[in-house]
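PROTOCOL LOG
Step 1. Enter all chains and additional molecules of the complex.
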Amino acid sequence: MTVVALVGTQWGDEGKGKITDVLASKADVVVRYQGGNNAGHTVVVGEQTYKLHLIPSGMLSAGTTCVIGNGVVIDPQVLCRELEYLQTGGISTSLLRISENAHVIMPYHRVLDELEEAQRTVKIGTTARGIGPAYVDKYMRIGIRMMELKSPERLEAALDRALPFKNSLLQKVYGHPGFTKGELMEEYLQYAETLTPFITDTSLLLHQARKNGLSILMEGAQGTLLDIDHGTYPFVTSSNPTAGGAAPGAGIGPNQIDQVIGVVKAYTTRVGEGPFPTELQDATGDLIRERGREYGTTTGRPRRCGWFDAVMLRYSVRVNGLTGLAVTLLDVLDAFDELKVCVGYEYRGERLLHFPADLHVLNECKPIYETLPGWNCDITGAQGFEDLPPNAKAYLSFIEEQVGCPVQIVSVGPRRDQTLMLEPVM
Ligand code: GDP
Ligand code: IMO
Ligand code: MG
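Step 2. Run joint prediction.
Step 3. Record the structure below.
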């Protein structure tokens, strides 16, 4: 019995979906604890590629119970579509469970996400999925929870609480016509028909699973630098992807998490706006983007690409309490003669070893690089760590040393069998 939290250590898209899928074969339960369908997790199983936004990537492993935890914000329309997508593809969804406490994304959240982004002079580049506005309502205590979809009376009462606020804002500030209770009721009661059988007390489910000696994998979405508290605020998402968010987002105690694995790309990417010290706006960045097929799973936007940033990773190791790393997309670096790793930042003539919280400082930071030799060969067929060329091993050792955390998993391609387990995780 073990509980493992798996978190993104950069700006998202580190390959969490793939690593979750690989570990899910050993986990009895996989639980998502925050975010919503702003996430896009691509998982390759055999010849098939799956793109998941809300349902935990563990769903692709037969026999694994998958939980959408209370900390997630759920767009029921997207969830119904995703259920159908999996069922059509022959994937059983019977072991999905949805927290009754999870908050619901409403059409006014999606509209507000777009209107608010348009209003910003400095854009965040949100995914426009209504994530931020749904969390606003949760904290304003006018959110609608999944349990309220269970009966028309409860949904109506919840809308009576929320809708006057939302319509005033839409109509008076943005000149939008707003929404009627009737249209929202009609739409959401339809989703409720599909979703109600899955809605339950998932905190209790996890507690009982643990008591029965089962293994639990907690799947984070987004990444540490997108965390509302620890990320590059305000260019962040509206939840806590960091490991600390896993306990309240799933309803377990923090002392019950045994290991925290940080998923990290062998380089860095970011989608959306905000600072990115090691960004490469040149042919090298383009080559990384093409080799890594770095285009967003959710919005299709080209991802910004750059070298590995050890300063940032040191920070991620610290704020997540990482016990191990899963290094992904190492094969993308197969085509480079030399590789650069940022080992410090230069700020006004000073050498910084710690990631600065202040964006004014971060914006002025210049990366200090160390150059390592590339390996210039195809590693996608490696079956074990011993198959990696010496320079690839040296690159991984250098990262371990720089960030002070052991590498436990190395991924050399999108498929399940392109995963090297250096030390068992679950
Ligand atoms: P997530 O949001 O963290 O789950 O990551 P995404 O799915 O958005 O992006 C990661 C992309 O990299 C996906 O298209 C994966 O199929 C792919 N991928 C994952 N691991 C590897 C790897 O080791 N090598 C290569 N070439 N692709 C990988
Ligand atoms: P996964 O789980 C990468 C980014 C958006 C934007 C910012 C805020 O696939 O790693 P939001 O819609 O959340 O209010 O947008 O966060 N963002 C992601 N970037 N991967 C993700 O998820 C992301 N989810 C949100 O691009 O910059
Ligand atoms: Mg993604």
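Step 4. Note key features.
Residues 12-13, 39-41, 297 surround magnesium ion (ligand 3) (CB under 6 Å).
The radius of gyration is 21 Å.
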